Amino acid sequence: MRIGLAGLGYICVAQHTPALMRYAREAAPVDFAVCDPSAERRAEWQKQFGKAPAYESAEEMLRHERLDAAFVLVPPEAMCEVAEKFLEAGVPTFTEKPPGMNRGETERLVRAAAGKVHAVGFNRRFMPLVRKMKEIVRAGTGGAGGAGAVLLGCEFTRVGRYDGDFTTTLIHGIDTLRFLGGDIAEFSVRSVQREGKKPFRSYLVHGRFASGALMEMEGLPVSGRTVESYTLSARDRTVRACIMGGDAREVTVHREGRLAERYSEADLGLADAPEWVGGGFYEQARRFLDAARSRNASRGGPGEPAGTTFEETSQSVELMDFLRTCGDGGEWRAKP
User: What is the pLDDT of residues 262-300, one digit of tens each?
Assistant: First the structure.
């Protein structure tokens, strides 16, 4: 397979490229073409992973390369424009999150991807710990939106993240809540901006899923610890997955005030696994590339979803955009 990598920043070097190299070893031969406007990043990628044709832009790469698949790993504000170029060229396309900065951009990609293999990199959906939590929830409550579900919450804190826009990271929390609990019907935000040499904005969210279960999320870019965890409270159990920082990375189930089940990373076969395996990057790449190979082998024809589709994540993007634009707070409701 000839894979184009558009954007050679940290997420490409630390997560996606190692996952693709493993796919090349275990599933099918892979070679690369890369593009990035930074000559330094192009040289650094080649130093780590080997020589490959390198271009300054997606347009230049598309003019010179015949690609079997593309990974678009550019900054969020450029994602829609760059991904659209590959999709319109008929290349199976994987994008990092978010697949657009607002619902309008995501809908553009939905249209461009019609009938084509594509996927969005919401890697939490492929993390073994998150999938284990969903398996337990479905078995115990008939799904997160089942009659036994009362509340689904997310603690999403970081240390020293003075990003200009933290919502493009916080969207992971929103999307994982939706993966576990279904679509959201109501979304109430309270936000506070802290000024100084490095200002930052924190968020407190309450809401309700379409199923009727409650939701809550705290998003703190600047705090004393990095934690990302998801907790479901039901009538007879509480299920929690800690996937980053804080306590041990594990899934726990409590019943009647006692710890009833515990699943560590070791229990899920991840004791010595690199982050790009435990973090879901390899599994989502495998799913996407298997679908792209199948499409290419059949010489075209309608593509199949190869993971998480643009359409599936449109509400996550819409809620991210609401967080970005609601100032100190506001109310959002899903359209009937």
Answer: 999 999 999 999 999 999 999 999 999 999 998 765 444
- Cα-Cα end-to-end distance for the chain: 44
Domains and CATH numbers, the chain: 2-124+280-309 (3.40.50.720), 128-271 (3.30.360.10)
Where do we find the tokens 């590959």?
A: 86
- The token duo for 164 is 């200009």
Instruction: Say what the pTM is.
Output: 0.94
Report in angstroms the alpha-carbon separations of 247 from 60, 193, 252, 280. 46, 28, 11, 20
Which residues touch 69 (CB under 8 Å, ≥6 apart)? 1, 2, 3, 4, 91, 92, 93, 94, 117, 288, 289, 292
Q: What angle do CA 115, 117, 123 make, to 5 degrees?
A: 135
How far apart CA 136 and CA 150 sit, in angstroms, is 15
- Strand ranges of the sheet holding 31-35, from the earlier edge strand across to the other edge: 54-55, 31-35, 2-6, 69-72, 93-96, 118-121
The Cα–Cα gap between 102 and 106 comes to 6
Buried b (16+ CB within 10 A) or exposed e, 68-97: bbbbbbbebeebbebbbbbbebebbbbbbb
